[in-house]
Write a structure and sequence with these properties.
263 residues, alpha/beta, Rossmann fold, seven-stranded mixed β-sheet, 24% strand
Length: 263
């Protein structure tokens, strides 16, 4: 099995991670507190979940989104809120941004830093395309610290012998690593923040259906034996007890960092 994490279904990803992205993104944007009228770059925009929040909350002048997945970009471009002339999407690599220097006022990397094979290069590229005194920021699930929303699922799958791939740079999501990346890129007035969120699923069946859309687990789940699948469900029910109404609440934790391009 190919163990790289591939994003090729915008709708499934919306249910699996889009909701989580918005929960963390709300706190991230509150903390960022950007001025209106900025030119934004969303690096690794995926299916546009966070891009949509920029448009809704930040009164941007323009928003550009780049991502390596054509399928995700197509989903983003089709969002009603992102069909406006101020949004532009294109396929590109975070380590080689297709823009000249000083193009943007703010560049953000939402839930992406651990997917960049060379994180310092990715941060350096954001710095390059942002004007002097512009904002460079990111938030990412704390993978080494167990902050990923589906960490319990990953743990149980691996205990049953399933292969659950990791992104290429999981350690880049540590809060100290993110601060070091921003410092190494020459950014100033650097701040970090821990973001904790919770998401409630209607019941276990809602959770179980949702996880099948996960690019890191969907294919592994499809190859498990019926016995192991039943055992996994049993273990996950024990780890995610339902309340009196049958709802299941899960927690996740992300790390965030921001800084300004020096004069």
């Amino acid at each position: 099995m190919n163990n790289t994490i591939q994003f090729n279904d915008g709708a499934a990803y919306e249910r699996y991670m889009g909701a989580w992205s918005r929960l963390a993104g709300e706190q991230f944007l509150d903390w960022l507190a950007p001025q209106p009228g900025l030119r934004w770059l969303d690096v690794g925009c995926g299916n546009g979940a966070f891009t949509e929040m920029i448009v809704a909350r930040c009164a941007p002048a323009t928003v550009d989104g780049i991502d390596p997945s054509e399928e995700q970009l197509a989903f983003a471009a089709a969002r009603p809120a992102l069909r406006a002339a101020i949004t532009h999407f294109q396929r590109s690599d975070a380590m080689a941004l297709p823009f000249p220097a000083d193009t943007f006022d703010a560049a953000v990397m939402p839930l992406v830093i651990f997917f960049v094979p060379d994180p310092p290069k990715g941060v350096a590229e954001m710095v390059r395309v942002v004007r002097l005194d512009g904002i460079v920021a990111a938030y990412a699930w704390d993978l080494p610290g167990g902050g990923f929303p589906y960490q319990a699922l990953h743990d149980e799958m691996r205990a049953l012998g399933a292969t659950v791939p990791l992104p290429p740079s999981p350690d880049a999501s540590r809060i100290d690593a993110m601060e070091q990346l921003w410092t190494g890129a020459g950014l100033e007035t650097i701040e970090t923040k821990e973001i904790s969120v919770q998401r409630t699923f209607a019941n276990f069946e809602d959770y179980w259906t949702t996880i099948h859309g996960g690019p890191s687990v969907g294919r592994a789940l499809a190859t498990m034996t019926p016995h192991d699948t039943a055992l996994l469900q049993e273990r996950m029910r024990a780890r995610l007890p339902a309340d009196a109404s049958g709802q299941i609440t899960c927690s996740a934790r992300a790390n965030a960092v921001k800084g300004h391009v020096p004069h």
